[in-house]
Amino acid sequence: MVPRKRTDTDQADSPVCRTRVNNRAPIAGRWLPVEVGNSILARRVDGCVTVIPESHTDLLTRPLFGHLATIRPDGTAQSNPVWYIWDGEVVQFTFSTKQQKHRNVLTNPHVALSIQDPEDPYRYLEVRGIVETVDPDPNGGEFFMKLNTHYNGPFTESLYPTEGGIYTMRPTSTSKQGQ
Amino acid sequence: MVPRKRTDTDQADSPVCRTRVNNRAPIAGRWLPVEVGNSILARRVDGCVTVIPESHTDLLTRPLFGHLATIRPDGTAQSNPVWYIWDGEVVQFTFSTKQQKHRNVLTNPHVALSIQDPEDPYRYLEVRGIVETVDPDPNGGEFFMKLNTHYNGPFTESLYPTEGGIYTMRPTSTSKQGQ
Description:
2 copies of one chain form a homodimer. Chain A has 4 helices and 9 strands. By secondary structure, chain A is mainly beta. In chain A, strands 1, 2, 3, 4, 5, 6, 7, 8 and 9 form a 9-stranded antiparallel β-sheet that branches. The longest helix of chain A is centred in the last third of the chain and has 9 residues, at about 140-150.
């Protein structure tokens, strides 16, 4: 991928909001891995909001597939296509709590989502952030079916009627390419 | 993304080939971050080859875009669309050595590439692996232009004539979904 006109909000737009994490120590106190149902995985303490570049918000609102980078408990990388939904403040995903992705975010809630424009493959948005909460998907998979509708998906009922999770990521920084 | 028919070769196909890594210690001796030009970042010592599922090799040979998960020096995740090429044994990428991705793989060579079938978004391949070598792209960007040709890209010369790198990833495990 070609880095023309790539920009990164990490330092440019919101240095004060940056959540610096080092695996070995200073992360403690900013987030705490917990089980589904207790809900709080991580919470930003500074009250800042990471702004998505307006030129690229369509990549969050259109029913495109994203690729979610997570970090496995052994410290190696994982990448999977995902459904997502954006409410203007946080990005939400659904997985089964039996999936490896679930174990990954419980161990390390730092994730990154990249979304490519299918009409222009050299235009993309990357949103890095922290999975703040994991909540049970209520009523046999209500959230799964909301995403299924958003994506015009093929399902008539949730694949995770009992073990579905709602994963809520708060963006901490973005990068983009293209106009 | 829906985990129907998902399989993982991690343990099923090649347990003996697994390269288990823990960020905190046992990785030492298996790989060593070095500068471009010295070339060896990591090398598997067991002589095993991770087999790509035959049903999904088309996703490696077609000129599709992949999303590459890397791990930043602060231990957080990054995801970017990438060009790639597969020779039947290793996957190769090109970046500029001035990009963050370069710094990431020098710090932690464990990466993951996910590729979705544009004709069937519920079919995908994930290849996890280790960037074994980083070599300078010779002759003003010969490798960049090879990828540009493979992707029918818009470039008439390399964007990285002097600082281009050839990143060679050896697969260590795969996962897939769909037929």
